[in-house]
Design a protein that fits this description.
With 229 residues, the chain is of the alpha/beta class. The chain contains 9 helices and 5 strands. The longest helix is centred in the C-terminal third of the chain and has 28 residues.
């Protein structure tokens, strides 16, 4: 059975991730492809309980290292019990946030450094998305969108502009670290235009995957790493 695609969405709150995730879900459905949607932290019964602790404003005394470890713990449960099984059965997986959020928010935003990469390597077993779509929007525009959305801000959203600017800058550093995987999307454009750009990226990814699988089938004696070189 062909392994499914693993696509993650990243960006600070207010960049329009939820809208674009829903549009991509519809795209897969219309194409007759099974799709699993997940959010982080969360996605499992245990992960949702961890999410409550992480985002609760009563958790403001949480240390940076505790925060990083809790995100990784939720992710470990999600990878082993949901993401890997779904991909193995040919389902596409769309995840609202994944390891790059920890890199941006904890490695750079909290100044924890490369230890965040190490704990997430352990938590995920090295599983990375086939593609990450990073939506970038200036802070003022993102703040206005969040205000229009309404609702009470959570613990992370209440960190303030200075922290969020560090996170945004961190995301761009992460994008430079993984240029083959991360696609930076201008989130100031119209939703339909962004969706079209995302569909184009996904179609190119699917085409590359199909060609790689075809080449592997034609030369069964070679390993995956040899085929992709």
């Amino acid at each position: 059975m062909t392994r499914g695609l693993f696509i993650s969405f990243e960006g600070t709150d207010g960049t329009g991730k939820s809208t674009q995730i829903e549009l991509l879900r519809r795209y897969f459905q219309e194409a007759g492809q099974e799709c699993v949607y997940l959010r982080e932290p969360g996605g499992t019964a245990i992960g949702e309980r961890v999410r409550e602790v992480l985002l609760d404003n009563r958790s403001r005394g949480m240390t940076a290292r505790t925060e990083a470890l809790l995100y990784a713990a939720s992710r470990a449960q999600l990878v082993e019990t949901v993401i890997e099984p779904a991909l193995e059965t040919g389902k596409n997986v769309i995840c609202d946030r994944y390891v790059d959020s920890s890199y941006a928010y904890q490695e750079f935003g909290r100044d924890l450094g490369s230890s965040v990469v190490d704990i997430n390597e352990f938590a995920t077993g090295g599983l990375m998305p086939d593609m990450t779509l990073l939506l970038m929007l200036d802070r003022q525009a993102a703040r206005e969108r969040m205000a229009a959305r309404g609702g009470e801000a959570d613990r992370i959203e209440n960190e303030g502009d200075a922290f969020m600017e560090k996170v945004a800058a961190g995301y761009l550093k992460v994008a430079k670290r993984y240029p083959d995987r991360i696609r930076v999307i201008d989130a100031s454009k119209a939703p339909e235009e962004i969706a079209a750009e995302i569909r184009s990226e996904v179609e190119m990814l699917q085409d590359r995957k199909t060609r790689a699988e075809g080449a592997s089938g034609a030369r069964p004696g070679n390993s995956d790493s040899e085929e992709l070189e």
